[in-house]
Specification:
9 strands, two-stranded parallel ribbon
Length: 270
Amino acid sequence: MTLFALLLGASRADARAAGSGSGFEEPYAGSPRYERFAPTVATARGEVNRPLGAGAADRIARAIGLDKAEVFTTKQYALFVSGKGVGGERAPAELVDKSVRILTNTVGTPLYTKVDGKVTPVVLGSYGLMVSTDGMLESPANKDAPTRQVNSVIEPGGYMATWCRNNGARAALRALYRSAYTVEAVWGNRAQQQSGEAQLVPNRFQVVGMSMAPPLWIVNFALIYTLNPKLAAKMPAHWTPIPANVALAIAASPSGQVPYSEYRSSLPVR
């Protein structure tokens, strides 16, 4: 889907989307019941890439049906993310760890990439963008990204569910599935299926990366909070539009990727 098609579809649904207050249309808005708990658009530069903070994370968790008493213990998280414990495996654990790092890419938790041969900090969480290990700018929902590849790990009956059953984390898994996670995962899948290679999301006449659309953000928040509430507190508190030149380039790319070095100046790191 081209960027023009995304924005045209958004404009046609603008009146319906405006009624929800978020500006997102279906399926990108997700469940009306939970949409209001997703990040709002940043209205000041200081809000871009700002993390939620522990207080806000706990409030959102309660609102979407999570209980802090039922999340992973510190030991369980350490074992899970390192590929240890009963039936632990390194590869899926690394996918989870990489995904959490990408989705908590806010001020104070930068990722690093090489730009012109120099290791450079990158903070792009509010844009719903990331930089791959080979320096390509993309949506975290791009099929090349760990955050997309991890879907097979976290799906019901997958590696995570099996690990939880084998390592005393059944209660955490049940609590996750009882929360907004299950409802929003359906909306998130629909959104990803119709967004093409670019995996960008329209909001009226603006565009943001898929990870900041309400259902995807809530799914990721619920999962990360279940694993480690302190990490969920580092997720972006607000979304911000991708600059037009960057969005156009990503949408026009057959792979949904563009060299970060060519667009770095359009995405300043705060």
